[in-house]
User: What shape does this take?
Amino acid sequence: MFERLTDKLSQVFEKITGHGKLTEKDINLALKEVRLALLEADVNYKVVKDFLIAVGQRATGQEILKSLTPAQQVIKVVYDELTQLMGGTHVGLNLTGPPPRVVMLVGLQGSGKTTTAAKLAAYVKKQNHVPYLVPADVARPAAIDQLTRLAEEIACPVYPSTTGQRPAEIAAKSLVAAGSVGSDVIIIDTAGRLTIDQALMTELIEIKKVTSCQEILLVADGMTGQEAVRVAHDFDQALNLSGAILTKMEGDARGGAAMSILAVTKKPLKFMGLGEKISAFEPFHPERVASVILGMGDVLSLIEKAQEVVDQEESARLLSVLSKGEFTLDDFKKQMIQLKKIGTVESILSMIPGLGRLKKFQEAIPDPKEMVQIEAIIDSMTTKERFRPQIIDASRRRRIAQGSGTTTQDVNLLIRNFGLAKKFMAQAGGKRGDLIQNLTSMLKRI
Assistant: This one.
């Protein structure tokens, strides 16, 4: 996400960081390159213009030019203005008032509304609400089946829609049905079109009237860039949106839509979809995204993700065996499984300040197939071998390699890496009492 823009801006700031002092000319030249980088990232041209005026006015002040660290001060100005450009702080869902609170998702066909409805329901459940999913897309029969299947996956009640019903009728009846199953938040998945047309808008306006929606969220494909911004503007004109959700952000190396939506529509970007999995869904935090764009990482999101998915009891046990020097290959495998829950190694490194862009770390990122291979090798060992890898001699290595479909070199590499990991982890936090505290401590040292 934002990889291309991050690389461009990093090159710009590396140039000015090399100067002991900066002149107004140096800053103006850097801002020209920033302008080009933003335009190439498909940020709205008027947004870029206003952004650079704001940055230029602050960055060329005497306080910065006479500073002992002018380059860092300029970067701080860019960070502050980027954060403000995208909203300043996270704007959450408005779920106040008497239940049921209604959230309607709108957008073009193919933007990911149905999957996003399920993701949003899973998110709402974590906030101690009881969501109710309502399939109101009768134009695409598969949409009802898809949302019903996703509802089962997240153990969420779903309204039994049929293609013979009118969307507004479905929405109205869902208000009563939600109460009967104890739900306090209704999430309505609506129909889309390839392009915006009057029939679609009429249908959505009818749903809005019969439900008195508290939230009308546009679901837009982040990879379409300024097209997503134009769609947001058009939907807002007809429905008065309360915010937006950008999907497919994991494949958006530019980020133009995320940086333009608020400035163009005056409506906040509330969430991001980062993949097909239900868990690949995050609140949009402008300050954290600005940090990622400028290559500063996003440690807070990494820690929150770890807190959400890591098994705390298992983590406590692992830390206990670490402190006693009893860390085994079984433990190594369990910790690797927990790491995979947080995300890919590449995504984790990208959240650590400066680490994701270092070539030596990028080259060290294991392929997902290698992770599977490691598990296969450990599974092919006996219990005694997992607890005492030092007994694994040449004949045992050949047997393990044959059983796991790998080579003896692969087995040798795993055993060597396990030894290094055991040593590092003992140094990093075997004496600490909490995995998250330990993770935070390691990240600060990095």
Q: What stands out?
A: The first helix runs from residue 3 to 17. The mean pLDDT is 80. The first strand starts at residue 101 and ends at 106.
